[in-house]
Amino acid sequence: MKTRKLGRQGLVVSELGLGCMGMSEFYGRGDDEQSVATIHRAIDLGVTFLDTADMYGPFTNERLLGRALKGRRDKVILATKFGNERREDGTWIGINGRPEYVRSACDASLKRLGVDTIDLYYQHRVDNKVPIEETVGAMAELVRLGKVRYLGLSEAAPATIRRAAKVHPISALQTEYSVWSREPEAEILPTIRELGIGFVAYSPLGRGMLSGRITRVDDLVADDKRRMFPRFQGENFAKNVALASRLQEIARNRNVTSSQLALAWVLSRGEDIVPVFGTKRLSYLEENVAAATLVLEAELTAIESASPVGAAAGQRYPDMSMVNR
Question: 92-95 and 84-86 as β-strands: parallel, antiparallel, unpaired?
Answer without folding.
Answer: antiparallel
